[in-house]
Amino acid sequence: MTADWLDIGWLDQIPVRGSRTVPVTGGDEIAVFRTGDNQVFALVNRCPHKGGPLSQGIVHGHSVACPLHNWSIALATGTAQGADKGCTPTVPVKVVSGRVLLCRASALRAAA
C-alpha cells in the first residue's frame, strides 16, 4: 500500500447493501457503499438535488436512493437516474486482501 490510498478498514465492517462514512478535511464526508454482490463504491455523501446524506439511503442493485426525496443515484458514476438530473462526485475505491482503500487525493478533491 502506498500513501496514495487511505485504508478505511475491513470490507466486513461495511454492511451488505449499506454504507459507512469517512470524514475528510473541511467537515465533508465520503460515503462508502457495499452492494449485495460485494462491490464497493465511494461517493461524496451529498445528493446533487438537495444535499441529502446518501449514506442514509437504501442501496438497491448498484444505486442508492436519497433519503430526502428518493432520487436514485448510480454508485459507479454518481449520476442521478431516470428523469432526475445531477451528479455527485465519485472517489476511486478498491479492496485489497479484504481491506477497503480510498484514493486519498481524489477523496480530498471530491469533497472540496
UniProtKB/TrEMBL annotation:
One of its GO terms (biological process) is nitrate assimilation. PROSITE patterns: RIESKE. It comes from the Bacteria. GO terms for molecular function: 2 iron, 2 sulfur cluster binding; metal ion binding; nitrite reductase [NAD(P)H] activity. It holds the Pfam family Rieske. CDD domains: Rieske_NirD_small_Bacillus. InterPro entries: Rieske-like_NirD, Rieske_2Fe-2S, Rieske_2Fe-2S_sf. Keywords: 2Fe-2S, Iron, Iron-sulfur, Metal-binding, Nitrate assimilation, Oxidoreductase. Residues 5-102 form the Rieske domain. Gene3D superfamilies: Rieske [2Fe-2S] iron-sulphur domain. PANTHER family: 3-PHENYLPROPIONATE_CINNAMIC ACID DIOXYGENASE FERREDOXIN SUBUNIT (PTHR21496:SF23), FERREDOXIN-RELATED (PTHR21496). This is Nitrite reductase.
